[in-house]
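Much of our argument rests on the idea that a fold can be written as discrete symbols. The record that follows shows the chain in one-letter code together with its fold in token form.
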Amino acid sequence: MNTHLHNYTHTQQSRLADYCRTGDPPKIDGLTENRVHHYRRLIHGVIDDTLQSAFPLTCDLLSQEEWYGVVDAFLSNYKCQSTSIWKMPSEFYRFVEETGLEIKEKYIFLEDLLNFEWTEVEIYMMPDIAYPESKTDGGWLSEVIAVNPEYKILQLNYPVHLKNPKGITENDRGEYYVLLFREKESGKVRFMNLSVYFSWLIEKVEIENTPLIKILKEAAQVFGVNEKALFENTLPFLEELKANKFIPGFYI
């Protein structure tokens, strides 16, 4: 008997959930038809608020009709798996990425824009990661540089982090790199544009845990540039990373 009640309840709840997602007339026992639409309205409100908060640039870019068209398509066709409401935007991004929506033909950079905006949320919400023990002063070449562990580097096809999305065209297509990281003290997420070399350098510094002079030797071979010239170009960038608190210092 208990199993029957459990299955029955699950069926009714699933039908209500399907109605809230698709708007199709529900077949629910004991339904009060002039009230059930409030459930759909409330669910849509929560989801729309969450997505607009996560993707403000995207929401501003699209017309109201385009925005709600994509949101409705997402709700009707994608069954979210996450139990955390703040993670739902990642599934919205995945839906747009995996679905052949006509709107992506008009906004050719839409996937990059959603990726960039979601990554900001993801880094802001990520669990704390212990910083390496470090000292403020040290030698750039001879010592091992410590970096903020709460970061991510994105490779993009369009400069959604540099230009107003409304001004991006096919002529902007290229290879772009952006560093996103969370400030330790404030918790704010910051981002910096990177060259392919600086993207490579940051990941090498973190992964190899070796003095910069050794990394520059490898970089000279990879990029075909003189070591001295590399260091002269790299030093201002490292100083900028340190000033922006992405580099806390040097390993003790």
Observations:
- The longest strand covers residues 176-182.
- The mean pLDDT is 90.
- The two ends are 66 Å apart (CA to CA).
